[in-house]
Design a protein that fits this description.
The structure is a single chain. The chain is α/β, with parallel strands linked by helices and 234 residues long. It contains 7 helices and 10 strands. A hairpin with a 2-residue loop joins β9 and β10. α4 packs across α5 and α5 packs parallel to α6. It is globular and about 50 Å long. Bound molecules: adenosine-5'-diphosphate (ADP) (2 copies).
Length: 234
Amino acid sequence: MNMIQVIDVTKTYKIGEVETRALSGITLEIAAGEFTALVGPSGSGKTTLLQIMGCLDRPDSGTVYVNGQDVTRLGADQRADIRRQEIGFIFQFFALVPVLTAYENVELPLLLSGLDARERRERVMAMLDAVGLADRAHHRPDQMSGGQQQRVAIARALVKRPIIVLADEPTANLDTASGEQAMAIMERLNRETGTAFVFSTHDPRVMAYARRMVRLVDGRIVEDSEVAGDGKEK
Ligand code: ADP
Ligand code: ADP
């Protein structure tokens, strides 16, 4: 079952007269449960591809299916609904709400879900527990380390039980130990929940967690291979 299907997608950014081709003819399928690294040099199109797969941006041409639905035919509101229901995001700079506690940040995606307060509390505490932060529930982001903040962001991405999590350079602002801890938690949640993950990275230690590696150069896929995913750097 394909969670996301990208077919012959192109994307060009125009700023004044200057055009930059970010993606050229990208075709890619992301199946249920995979744990995939998106790699390639800076400027190769990784962020753009993640944004298009996550319905944060639209391609100029080509088609994107999310959970079987052609999202390139939908309006902005409908794409926002799909994003809210089906997709979890993790960003390089965590993107937590600074005035909210860890608990409140993780609860945010559930506030519009229709779950009652008790169900929300159980889910939020289960997720904080899963990322090892049950004892930090009432801390705000500025009272936590970068690694802890990113673990809160992982909990926030998973709490609504999305079909896929898209992570753009999730470890780029973490020290080595915190980055490896974050990857180990994502890998465990991937195995336990079956949620698919696609994460971009430059870091060979982070790539080593992947079971599939997709490499972009100049907006094209130049490699798509199964890899060991044993956490050992090649
Ligand atoms: P990566 O994530 O691999 O670094 P990006 O997707 O960020 O690659 O960028 C791909 C290309 O598109 C680069 O040349 C980048 O400068 C350009 N680009 C990305 N976003 C924008 C934007 N919003 N406006 C203009 N150019 C952009
Ligand atoms: P990353 O390392 O995650 O690829 P980038 O620095 O390439 O990050 O891009 C960060 C953000 O800036 C993205 O949202 C991307 O779309 C945007 N961006 C990248 N290049 C440009 C550009 N040349 N002009 C405007 N926005 C850009």
